[in-house]
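Quick one: examine this chain and its backbone structure tokens and tell me how the chain folds. Here goes:
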Amino acid sequence: MADNFLERHYEDYEAKKEAWLRRKKHLSSTKPRQIHRPEDESL
């Protein structure tokens, strides 16, 4: 196997993890939508 194979793959993993965490941090938390139902359900 090539020299530094595991180290290189671990560095790639760390870079992808960092990018994922940055994107996750900037995502707004989505709240479930409330369904507006009429009071009279016979409609």
About this structure: Residues 2 and 8 are 10 Å apart (CA to CA).
